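ok so I'm stuck.
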Amino acid sequence: MPALNVEFTEEELVVVRALAAADGKSVKAYVHDITVREHARRVFVEGAKKFIDDHKEEFRAAFPDDAPAGNDTTAKPSSEAA
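replied:
not stuck anymore, here's the structure
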């Protein structure tokens, strides 16, 4: 299996060791898991952004009073909405 050597400052390594211990993992397992988790988070966020962009008009039509200000010229100013 491929491996990777990662360099940390002494201060960074203290933090990484503490975080790994708090998760009950070795430093190696912790660094692996956090890297994979960050990738999954980024993929999720990209998908969420695409979903919102793809369905923006549907949301706007279904919830016209909840549309963010400035994104719809037909939306009422917040002072008139109440």
